[in-house]
Design brief:
5 helices; about 35% helix; binds zinc ion; single chain; mainly alpha; globular
Length: about 130
């Protein structure tokens, strides 16, 4: 059985946001647990353009820069860092976007110990 990441409407939202934020296709692929080619193909199908990724409203409270999430707590979608686990939690942030697990991820894996175990176990055919 083949599952497409794009069957999930959340994935498209994640793609749009990350792409407009200037994330690389490889990074988005990592976050969505799909291939880079799949991301690029979807970007083209959606007609997303990098040229409009600079929003004019650059009004951000300065304290948001200080209040960076640390590993161990759920991370809002736009605050996720390279060291955060990329498991998407079953909840929404204040901005209405997906929330990541936020635990420190393990080396060689996009997930923390708990999620790596969960996702790896789910893939083993019974
Ligand atoms: Zn996790």
């Amino acid at each position: 059985m083949r599952f497409s990441v794009w069957d999930n409407p959340e994935s498209e939202q994640v793609l749009r946001v990350m792409w407009m934020e200037g994330s690389s296709a490889a990074l988005i692929a990592d976050a969505l647990r799909t291939s880079r080619n799949s991301v690029i193909g979807k970007v083209h199908r959606l007609g997303l353009s990098r040229t409009q990724r600079k929003p004019k409203v650059a009004k951000r409270p300065t304290r948001s820069r200080i209040a960076q999430p640390r590993p161990g707590e759920p991370v809002p979608f736009l605050k996720v860092k390279w060291f955060h686990c990329r498991a998407v939690l079953d909840q929404r942030g204040k901005d209405g976007l997906a929330v990541f697990c936020g635990q420190a991820k393990t080396i060689g894996s996009p997930w923390c110990v708990k999620h790596r175990r969960a996702f790896t176990a789910a893939r083993v055919p019974s």
